[in-house]
């Protein structure tokens, strides 16, 4: 089991940057994969970025070249660096952790609002 706490959301103008952090309550070294989903009202939750325990990464097409996911095992933290933000990136961003089994754990979410 793991508790996840996101931070770093906020209001930013289009073209700006934000860095989201996801702090885990235990070592993330052996967690199979971690990453970020986002959700806007009336839409399904969308997988934005994933990083595996082997540091392989994957992104949804709409954020490729703008977002970068990384992990710091020493700090038990996963980051999402978001650059060149667009109004359509506005959403609640949720951190997740995936264990084989499968088991998913979620954070409480952090709001990102991009103004035009």
What are its keywords?
mainly beta; 7-stranded mixed beta sheet; 4-stranded antiparallel beta sheet; 116 residues
Q: Structural class of the secondary structure composition? A: mainly beta
* Beta-strand residue percentage: over 45%
Give Rg in angstroms: 13 Å
Reading the helices and strands in chain order gives: EEEEEEEEEEE
Shape: globular
Mean pLDDT: 96
Discrete helix count: 0
Report the sheet with the most strands, covering strand number, pairing sense and barrel closure. 7 strands, mixed
Q: What oligomeric state is this?
A: single chain
How many beta-strand runs?
11
Q: What is the rounded distance between the termini?
A: 40 Å
Helix content: under 10%
Show unreliable segments. Answer: none
Structure report:
This protein is mostly beta strands and 116 residues long. Helix content is 0%, strand content 54%. It is built from no helices and 11 strands. It has strands spanning 4-7, 10-13, 18-24, 33-39, 46-52, 57-59, 67-72, 77-82, 91-99, 103-106, 110-115. Strands 2, 4, 5, 6, 9, 10 and 11 form a 7-stranded mixed sheet that branches. A 4-stranded antiparallel sheet has the order 1-3-8-7, with no helix packed on it. It is globular, with a radius of gyration of 13 Å. The model has no long low-confidence stretch (mean pLDDT 96).
Summarize the structure.
The chain is an all-beta fold and 116 residues long. 0% of the residues lie in helices and 54% in strands.
């Amino acid at each position: 089991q793991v508790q996840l706490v996101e931070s770093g959301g906020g209001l930013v103008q289009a073209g700006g940057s934000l860095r989201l952090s996801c702090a885990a309550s235990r070592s993330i070294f052996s967690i199979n994969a971690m990453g970020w989903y986002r959700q806007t009202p009336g839409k399904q939750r969308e997988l934005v970025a994933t990083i595996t325990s082997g540091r392989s990464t994957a992104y949804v097409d709409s954020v490729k070249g703008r977002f970068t996911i990384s992990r710091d095992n020493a700090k038990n933290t996963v980051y999402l660096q978001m650059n060149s933000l667009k109004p359509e990136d506005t959403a609640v961003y949720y951190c997740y952790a995936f264990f084989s089994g499968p088991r998913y754990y979620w954070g409480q979410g952090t709001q990102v609002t991009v103004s035009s």
